Amino acid sequence: MNHLSKSKWTSIERLNGWRHYEVLNIFKNRQEVEMFCICKSKIKIIISYKDLKNPSKWSKGWVDTEIIINN
Predict the structure, then answer these.
(1) At 27, which CATH number?
(2) Could you tell me which of 5, 15, 21, 69 has the fewest CB atoms within 10 Å of its CB?
(3) Which domain holds residue 8?
(4) Which H or E run includes 9?
(5) What's the pTM value of the predicted model, to 2 decimals?
């Protein structure tokens, strides 16, 4: 999971009003990552590694979600 450090992700659904997040912390024992919103760094979320790898929930990188949704 170390390869996730500082990686960028786009949420398919808006979370707290935003889609673009970056990994802040990795919790290996719990299989979770803490992410912060790029536009409002005070907004933080914790999600499971399993959810992060689910393409119906997240896309690696900062992606235009119109492209994801229409494909």
Answers:
(1) 2.30.30
(2) 69
(3) 2-70
(4) strand 8-15
(5) 0.85
